[in-house]
DUF1178 family protein (Oricola thermophila), 142 residues
Amino acid sequence: MIKFSLICDQGHDFEAWFRNTGDFETQKKRGFLECPSCGSTRISKALMAPNVSTARKREEVAVATGNGAQREIMAKLQEMARAVKKNGEDVGERFPEEARKIHYGESDPRGIYGKATPDEVASLLDEGVEVLPLPDLPEELN
């Protein structure tokens, strides 16, 4: 896909996306292009500034798209997951059963983590068992 800056014979500027330059030419010849402001079908390409990627521009894009915030959130989630795994016991697939035993006083209170389906988590929460699902996270930030 390619984006062109276009201009009509009345001087209205606008942009449009095309599969390639040939697609623009075909649509122009067939009269499919129309100015969104005035409806003119006399359309031509306008001068375009090249899209040059610079370090500053990449930084502006990262800030605008939230990548910095996303990295910070991911780092906090990874830190929390590491703390849970360091201080808790991995009970694997037995997580729902062990969480209930702890909640109902049938087992000594301790930090645990493991696997549970979304339905099992919902059931635990309905029973008042406090659980926090931890997503699988990459160790390294990309």
